[in-house]
Design goal:
Blueprint: E1 2-4, E2 11-13, E3 24-28, E4 35-39, H1 46-50, H2 66-71, E5 90-95, H3 99-111, E6 114-117, H4 122-131, E7 136-140, H5 152-159, H6 162-165, E8 169-174, H7 182-187, E9 192-195, H8 202-226
Parallel strand pairs: 5-6, 5-7, 7-8, 8-9
Antiparallel strand pairs: 1-2, 3-4
Pfam families: Zn_ribbon_4
Protein name: Zinc-ribbon domain-containing protein
InterPro entries: CheY-like_superfamily, Znf/thioredoxin_put
Length: about 230
Amino acid sequence: MDIVCKQCKSKFKIPDEKVPKGQIFTLSCPKCKNKISIDTRQDVSPSSKEKPQPSTAAEPVTKKTIIDEVDSGTYDASEKPFDFLEEGAQTALLCEPDSAVRSKVRSTLENMGYNVTEPESDRDALKQMRFHVFDLVVLNEVFSSENPDENNVMKYLERLPMATRRKIFVVLATNRFRTTDNMAAFNKSVNIVVNTKNIDEIGKIIKKGLSDNAAFYRVFKDSLVKTGKV
């Protein structure tokens, strides 16, 4: 079932097997926590109401992913990444398992003017992204994941509404692709790829990527402003 929050316009899906049939139920928007009321009574046919057929097959158990668990969690102020930010402050989420590399990248980002937070795990990163839209995300594809193609932070970013995703510049650190490989960046749905061998140059690479990204979206963003969509 596709759900749209009337308050923040976020879209998300609920597996059909998890939707209560023939009743009214409420859930919280994972973005703005607005209460959403869902009525499924009209989806139940009269015959099914009168003659419910017992099922002989066991219902499949759907295993919750970390993303599902975080999205369905309740609000906890301690999970906010920053207590206070000045107006216009830029923020960065740094997801890097290697402490030496993490320290080096953090120093670079802070010198660029970013307020940086370092989640300890993918679960921690997802909780922080629930309550804050970061300007920059630097993600090592093996952060909290042995399989880079099953990275939960990457999957979460891929699920974001496009309007939200455009606000985030995502840098993927990897040893599988060359730095600034545009095709790899496109396939992984990130803004720029940085090979870990070039981590010492990440500041210059990010600045160049941000400049190119701003030029690419300038006309698009101007058109949105003129049409009153932002």
